[in-house]
Inverse folding.
């Protein structure tokens, strides 16, 4: 943006902002007539709280939309994998068809594990921002490649296919952990000490996860056969173990943190309102 554009935008904002603020104030008082006639400072605080609540509701809807979209994308990925199955006949029933079914089932459980981990990350947040959506789109784009890498690795278990799958795993681990870090930072923004502690834990977890995936990738480069079986077996085992674990305590912690955050915000508005009344 050049100086002329910035100057025009500044004049536009300076000319129209008073009218916009007046219109927003009128709309707020129409919806909340109980604040008509109150002192200006209390009216300002309530108007600020009103728009913050509106923004929070918008971000909640955003979370519902992106979760629905993610579920649809993962469902389409699994469906496309199913369409790749060869039709059975007498000549290839035991070889091509059964091996195709086996490849599909492995891909299915791998995608199921990815969906479960994605769901557990998003269930901890009441709302999300556009930054999370951008990261999630990259995450889903990388996820769409896994049926291809899985089929390639199973049919031709050589160094190239195993390393290609390992690189996709590294990208997957990075993006999922970044989403988790951003969600935690936004959900705990009203709890600075809890947020700082969570950030340290999340960054440490992301560093260790990336280090482990890189080590497995390097190991798979030199021992592709072992890496091939590990990449196939680990997601299935992880899916089964994750389903058996009880995540209520962790989810409950996030729910309590969100309730505390809302309570602190309401207490802050009430304190500011009382102080404005005393002044």
């Amino acid at each position: 943006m050049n100086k002329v554009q910035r100057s025009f935008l500044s004049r536009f904002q300076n000319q129209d902002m008073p009218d916009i603020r007046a219109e927003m104030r009128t709309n707020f008082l129409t919806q909340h007539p109980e604040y008509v006639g109150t002192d200006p400072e209390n009216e300002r605080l309530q108007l600020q709280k009103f728009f913050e609540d509106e923004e929070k509701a918008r971000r909640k809807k955003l979370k519902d939309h992106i979760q629905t979209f993610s579920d649809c994308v993962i469902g389409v990925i699994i469906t496309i994998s199913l369409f790749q199955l060869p039709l059975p006949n007498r000549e290839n029933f035991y070889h091509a068809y059964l091996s195709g079914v086996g490849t599909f089932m492995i891909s299915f459980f791998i995608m199921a594990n990815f969906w479960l981990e994605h769901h557990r990350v998003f269930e901890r947040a009441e709302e999300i921002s556009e930054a999370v959506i951008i990261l999630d789109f990259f995450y889903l784009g990388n996820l769409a490649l896994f049926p291809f890498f899985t089929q390639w690795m199973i049919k031709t278990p050589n160094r190239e296919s195993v390393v290609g799958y390992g690189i996709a795993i590294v990208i997957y681990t990075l993006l999922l952990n970044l989403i988790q870090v951003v969600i935690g930072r936004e959900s705990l923004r009203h709890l600075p000490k809890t947020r700082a502690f969570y950030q340290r834990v999340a960054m440490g977890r992301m560093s260790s996860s990336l280090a482990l995936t890189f080590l497995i990738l390097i190991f798979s480069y030199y021992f592709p056969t072992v890496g091939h079986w590990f990449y196939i077996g680990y997601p299935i085992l992880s899916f089964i173990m994750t389903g058996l674990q009880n995540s209520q305590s962790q989810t409950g912690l996030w729910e309590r943190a969100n309730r505390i955050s809302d309570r602190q915000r309401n207490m802050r508005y009430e304190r500011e309102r009382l102080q404005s009344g005393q002044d």
In short: The mean pLDDT is 75. DSSP finds nine helices and no strands in the chain. Residues 42-278 form one domain.
